[in-house]
Amino acid sequence: MAIDRWIALVILLICLAYGYAAFFTMDQLLPPIMKQRPIWPSTFPKVLAVGGILLSLSIVLGIEKSPTKKEAADINLANLGEYKVGQALMLLGLMVAYALLLRPLGFLGSTFLFLFVGSFILGERRYVLMAVVSAIAAGFIWYLVDAVLGIFLSPLPAMLNGG
């Protein structure tokens, strides 16, 4: 079995466990007034679980593959140097750095740096465009999370927020 099917099988098992939790355990402690609403706190997890199960099943069963498409080769460990492993590892390290810098630099600063450095790692070299897109994206995401969803994210570094 190809590696994409193995990964899909693991994702299928995770989605089945997540779906079980969403359908059978999340709604038991809801107060009666919440049970009368059309959308419950478990609605989005249920949608995610069903979507994940359907998509991973389509990969495990081979439904997504077209009949004329060549079969993709498995990852060949002998040719590991041909893959962009360095970029992948740098992006993983950047994700860890983003998580660690979120409080000290604030959401806007750490998100800007993550997007800017991430695009640099992936090969973009137009620095002004990278800075503009990173600044707009960080500001837009912060606005959506803070103002629209009502979830407070500290936009500034911790030292400027008094703690």
Description:
By secondary structure, this protein is mainly alpha-helical. The protein folds into two domains: 3-66; 87-148, no CATH class. Helices cover 64% and strands 0% of the residues. The chain has helices at residues 3-25, 32-35, 43-60, 85-121, 127-148. Helix 1 (3-25) runs antiparallel to helix 3 and helix 4 (85-121) crosses helix 5. The chain starts with a helix and ends in a 15-residue tail after the last helix. The mean pLDDT is 85. Residues 6-153 form the DUF1468 domain. It holds the Pfam family TctB. The chain crosses the membrane at residues 45-63, 83-101, 107-123, 130-153.
Shape: flat
Query: Helicity range of the residues?
Result: 55-70%
Task: Please tell me the overall pLDDT.
Answer: 85
Q: Report the span from N to C terminus.
A: 53 Å
Largest sheet: none
SSE order, one letter for each helix or strand: HHHHH
Radius of gyration: 21 Å
Q: How much strand content do the residues show?
A: under 5%
Count the DSSP helices: 5
Q: How many beta-strand segments? A: 0
Which regions are unreliable across 5 or more consecutive residues at pLDDT < 50? none
Q: Look at the helices and sheets and give the structural class.
A: mainly alpha
How many distinct domains? 2
